[in-house]
User: Which sequence fits this backbone?
């Protein structure tokens, strides 16, 4: 009798923790539907030394020191790095008392960890970048064989509608538009979980309360992180609540269909004076071109919240 096939989703997270990245890592680390193969960090919300340190702190919190973590690029392909200190603080994960890493940084560059992990996997991998696409773009360029070995990319980034870091552009797209343009034209199935989606799945104060009630260490740490992160959103936005952007991408990767998508031709603006980093989505097919992206247009918020509860509950204090 043969052994049962492994039905878990083989997953690589490429991230820049970041409060919402931290929750994304905690979900991928605890969901039995995921086989978390590697975590790579890139510069974005903070510098790459901070984001790679943070990724290891969060995996330590999750009790997953078995997951390799490598640091990737320290800045975008073109120009200077823009960070999001006003959202995530000077450490990138302000607000909580997180453990020191119990795992060393992998000695490989993040790009090489992505390449070797994908090529070494027994089945096609799902790549979930929740950050600027620098690492992913370079990995695809450096190793063309990745194309046949990545089942799907589920990226948190972009927006068909309004931006957040500029009126036109979402942060992850804005930080490295050249990299995003490379990934969008790579011919790999790509789902864009952008602001149009993540702003439909806002958390409220009551959600911080049930997360805190899960107890130390994870419930307490996440609630402390979200208390800090919520502050920025209260100051910036007229709506109440706050989006957990990156958690939405992990949720879609592990519960496909949670995000409703439409196929569209999408281009990333790399030049515009006011629009650099805009993801220009051809909703009505006026370009008459083959769609290259499944653009997220809505999310089942109730199902997302149920997913968050279900997986975070696995960290409940015994
Ligand atoms: C994205 O930008 C970052 O600040 C968040 O971590 C998320 O990936 C939202 O625009
Ligand atoms: Ca992020």
Assistant:
């Amino acid at each position: 009798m043969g052994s049962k096939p492994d039905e878990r989703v083989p997953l690589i997270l490429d991230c820049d923790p970041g409060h919402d990245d931290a929750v994304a890592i905690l979900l991928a680390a605890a969901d039995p539907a995921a086989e978390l193969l590697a975590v790579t960090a890139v510069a974005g919300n903070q510098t790459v030394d901070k984001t790679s340190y943070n990724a290891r702190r969060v995996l330590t919190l999750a009790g997953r020191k078995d997951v390799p973590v490598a640091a990737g690029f320290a800045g975008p392909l073109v120009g200077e790095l823009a960070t999001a200190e006003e959202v995530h603080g000077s450490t990138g994960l302000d607000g909580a008392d997180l453990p020191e890493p119990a795992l060393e940084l992998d000695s490989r560059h993040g790009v090489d960890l992505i390449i070797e992990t994908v090529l070494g996997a027994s089945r096609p991998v799902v790549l979930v970048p929740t950050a600027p696409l620098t690492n992913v773009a370079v990995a695809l360029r450096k190793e063309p064989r990745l194309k046949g070995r990545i089942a799907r990319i589920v990226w948190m980034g972009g927006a068909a509608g309004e931006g957040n870091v500029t009126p036109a552009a979402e942060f992850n797209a804005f930080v490295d538009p050249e990299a995003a343009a490379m990934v969008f034209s790579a011919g790999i199935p790509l789902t864009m979980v952008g602001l149009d989606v993540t702003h439909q799945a806002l958390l409220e104060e009551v959600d911080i309360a049930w997360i805190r009630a899960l107890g130390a260490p994870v419930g307490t740490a996440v609630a402390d992180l979200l208390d800090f992160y919520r502050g920025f959103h209260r100051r910036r936005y007229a709506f109440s609540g706050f989006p957990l952007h990156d958690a939405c991408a992990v949720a879609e990767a592990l519960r496909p269909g949670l995000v409703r998508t439409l196929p569209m031709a999408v281009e990333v603006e790399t030049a515009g004076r006011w629009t650099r980093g805009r993801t220009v989505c051809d909703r009505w097919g006026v370009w008459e071109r083959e769609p290259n992206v499944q653009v997220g247009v809505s999310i089942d918020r109730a199902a997302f919240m149920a997913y968050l509860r279900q997986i975070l509950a696995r960290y409940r204090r015994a």
Residues 18, 20-21, 45, 84, 87, 130-131, 156, 164, 170-172, 245-246 surround beta-D-ribofuranose (ligand 1) (CB under 6 Å). The CA atoms of residues 18 and 92 lie 5 Å apart. The domain at 5-315 is CATH 3.90.245.10 (Inosine-uridine Nucleoside N-ribohydrolase; Chain A).
